[in-house]
Amino acid sequence: MNDVIKALTKEVLSSSDIDWNPPPALLRGESRMYARATKTGSLAVVSSKARARRPDRTRVKYDSDGVFDRLVSEAWGYVVKRSYYAVERCVGSGARRFRVLALVERSYPHLALMSHQNFFPCGSSGSYDMVTIDVPSYEYTWMLVERRSNSTLVLGSDYYGELKMSFLRLAMNEARDRHLGLGLHAASKLYRVRIRGSLREFGVLVFGLSGTGKTTLTVEDHGLRPPETVRVMQDDIVILDWGGTAYGTEMNLYPKTDSVPELRQLEPAVLHPDAVLENVVVREDGTPDFLDLSLTRNARALAIREAIPTASGTVDLEKTDALVFLTRRPEMPPLARLTSPYQAVAYFMLGESFRTSAEAGKPEPVRVPGFDPFMLEPKWRTVYSLLDIVKSLDINVYVMNTGHAKNRKIPPELSKHLLLSLARDTVEWDADDHMGFEVAVNSGGLSLSDYNPRELYGERYSSVAESLRRERMQFLSSIAGLEFLASYV
């Protein structure tokens, strides 16, 4: 089998002009030649080639793939002639870390800077678990992922999200396949709250597709005062092992910035002098305008995690007590508790929500298995790994609707209240025989009847629930090797 990107990497390392591990100050200085400085000293860059990921231009090679090999071959000569910054870092900082090498075209120093700041230092070794060659200036756009050699060639995109996920995509799946843990597209946080006179620790992983409020719920501090606390570990990718530890993968964060005005906890991380704003509009006086989406609706920042007031000193969550799947489905209550490990993995693979299409205001359902667009084959391995973990650790799994219950908007403050109530163990439940799960009916003394779909749909509820169930069964039945999950929804 021909590992073409591995061979290309070998030639680049031996014959291309490479500047190894340039200091961040140099990269920041080089970036200032075409970027702007904000009032707080952070760097603001505007992408010229791409402003979002391109799943339609991402190709993964598992075995033989003639088209893949041809695309690499066509770019070969161009790639070898480029000059590069080489950035050696680690995905993760603890027992589940991976050594990575980013070879970034030298004309794009901000990408090398963001990679340096996003991942952990781990020294120079010459041996790597994953390698990415990033050539934004190439004429055509392709993200070529070679699974066997854990190598990626990013062509024609200067969007940092492609470089970041080139490592995290492979790290998540490598952890799974090496039986080191399960890579999950989830945020992690730790509550320390008072229950019946004693302090209780409650570790939670929050899953959700874009637009479901994952970052909002992750950085929320609920106004707790010592000795009660909230600590934020990660906001994107963790590796959950069979002992319940969720290992962090990133030193910092890469959130969308349109929510910054509403998230006081996130603001200092985004405005930190070491932050890098990507495709954020900056006014003449150097003030970022996070609500101006004229450049893109996907404006982001490489934000400094330690600047968040509730940031934990570690990125690793020692013990996971609960998984929370965020969704936006009008048939779902604000909070549901799943009743078995099999039902939990079924909802995990549904990965469902609603999104708004390009046609103004037209919502459409979306399902992404595992809430994870980066899950590589075989997907059944992910499911059985999660099933083992949930079974062995007796983890509670919940579905939280952050959208509408029927046509009634669920306020963000209610979702925040419910998450804190889970930590405090003050939620009252009632069985929903139509859906097969338990519904939160009271939370810390607050009745949830106004948002209960059973009440809102009335006599139509049974037919609405049955229609959704058939839709879910059809979707799960289409996933090879996992058809059995259809009977658990």
Automatic annotation (TrEMBL):
<keyword id="KW-0418">Kinase</keyword>
<dbReference type="GO" id="GO:0004612">
    <property type="term" value="F:phosphoenolpyruvate carboxykinase (ATP) activity"/>
</dbReference>
<dbReference type="Pfam" id="PF01293">
    <property type="entry name" value="PEPCK_ATP"/>
</dbReference>
<protein>
    <recommendedName>
        <fullName>phosphoenolpyruvate carboxykinase (ATP)</fullName>
        <ecNumber>4.1.1.49</ecNumber>
    </recommendedName>
</protein>
<keyword id="KW-0808">Transferase</keyword>
<keyword id="KW-0067">ATP-binding</keyword>
<keyword id="KW-0670">Pyruvate</keyword>
<dbReference type="InterPro" id="IPR013035">
    <property type="entry name" value="PEP_carboxykinase_C"/>
</dbReference>
<dbReference type="GO" id="GO:0016301">
    <property type="term" value="F:kinase activity"/>
</dbReference>
<dbReference type="InterPro" id="IPR008210">
    <property type="entry name" value="PEP_carboxykinase_N"/>
</dbReference>
<comment type="pathway">
    <text>Carbohydrate biosynthesis; gluconeogenesis.</text>
</comment>
<dbReference type="GO" id="GO:0006094">
    <property type="term" value="P:gluconeogenesis"/>
</dbReference>
<keyword id="KW-0456">Lyase</keyword>
<dbReference type="GO" id="GO:0005524">
    <property type="term" value="F:ATP binding"/>
</dbReference>
<keyword id="KW-0547">Nucleotide-binding</keyword>
<comment type="similarity">
    <text>Belongs to the phosphoenolpyruvate carboxykinase (ATP) family.</text>
</comment>
<dbReference type="InterPro" id="IPR001272">
    <property type="entry name" value="PEP_carboxykinase_ATP"/>
</dbReference>
